[in-house]
Amino acid sequence: MIEVRADITVDRSADEVFAYLSDWTNNPNWQRGMESCVWTSEPPLRVGSTYDQEARFLGRPVVSSFEVVEYEPGTLVRITTTSGTMPLDITRRVDSTGPTTSRVRAIVRGGPTGVMRLLNPLMAKIVQRSVTGDYERLRALLAS
Q1: Which one, of 79, 73, 88, lies nearest residue 49 by Cα?
Q2: Per-residue pLDDT at 118 exceeds 70
Q3: Domain map of the chain by residue range?
Q4: Count of CB atoms within 10 A of residue 130's CB?
Q5: Which contiguous run of DSSP H or E holds residue 10?
Q6: Which of 63, 64, 69, 91 could bridge to 107 as Cys pair (CB 3.0-4.6 Å)?
Q7: CA nearest to 24, candidates 92, 124, 86, 111
Q8: What are the backbone angles phi and psi of residue 100, rounded to the nearest 5°?
């Protein structure tokens, strides 16, 4: 299993950042390769909320369904795949560092299964670079 982390400071309030991160339809705006994210459950966000996403990673389609398995309003959301081509477990935490600044930390766990898991050491580097780039794009997007 691969585990990668991101840790950034954003020049926006924690409430604004969490609201943006928690609306999955925003994912294509800051995650490279993300093609679409669609809610499959009714708002508001809560444990049990679901969405589907379509992305491309290393030129291959990655189609996944996710469910919220842990949720602390305004602070933390953890999602896991319920179906898809690559099992993932993603935790995002947003903490206030001041009235107009916040810290975003993410942990992404998952990776190929079966014989493809032999590629995990190489995949870990690729995924870390991808996740770091995504969160840098998020920082830039929210700063504008």
Answers
A1: 79
A2: no
A3: 2-143
A4: 18
A5: strand 2-10
A6: 91
A7: 92
A8: -130, 20
Asked if residue 34 lies in contact with residue 137, where contact means CB atoms within 8 angstroms, the answer is no
Give the model's pLDDT for residue 57.
78
> Alpha helix locations (H) across the chain?
14-21, 27-30, 120-143
What CA–CA distance (Å, rounded) separates 35 from 37? 7
Residues in the chain: 144
pLDDT (tens digit per residue) in 30-78: 999 999 999 999 988 999 999 999 999 778 888 999 999 999 999 999 9
Range with the poorest average pLDDT among 45-54, 93-102, 120-129: 120-129
Give me the amino acid identity at 84. G
Residue the block writes with tokens 């079966």: 114
Q: Which CATH class is domain 2-143?
A: alpha beta
**How many whole angstroms separate alpha carbon 82 and alpha carbon 101?**
33
Q: In what order do the strands lie in the sheet with 101-110?
A: 2-10, 101-110, 88-98, 76-84, 60-72, 50-57, 34-39
